[in-house]
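Hi all, long-time lurker, first post. I run a small reading group and we've been trying to get comfortable going from sequence to structure in the token notation. Rather than ask abstract questions, I figured I'd post a concrete chain and ask someone more experienced to write out its structure so we can walk through it together at our next meeting. Sequence below, copied exactly:
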Amino acid sequence: MACAAAKPTNQSQVSQVKLFITSFSDEFYSERDLIRKEILPVLRLWCDSRKLTLVENFIKWGGRHPDQRNVAELERLQTSIENSYFSSIMPIFINITR
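-- Answer (accepted) --
Happy to help. Here is the structure in token form:
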């Protein structure tokens, strides 16, 4: 996880880990729910014990109904990913597919 953590600019700052969980918007409801309820709390505690801040983002791509896409949300997430690279943070991706 070291590559996904932002280096603090001073010693009082906490490093940041950016996690992006991606899947199709119309599928994988139970899998996203399991990650949100079971895995992320444990991962957050692990990060806290190492003075890391976990920032998680769920990205729901595509889907069968393109008119229901939240374009503004997708643009915000894309900007967040791009800013990670500019801040020397290598984001971590978990992609749920068939």
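A couple of things your group might point at:
The beta strands are 15-24, 52-61, 92-95.
The chain is about 40% helix and 25% strand.
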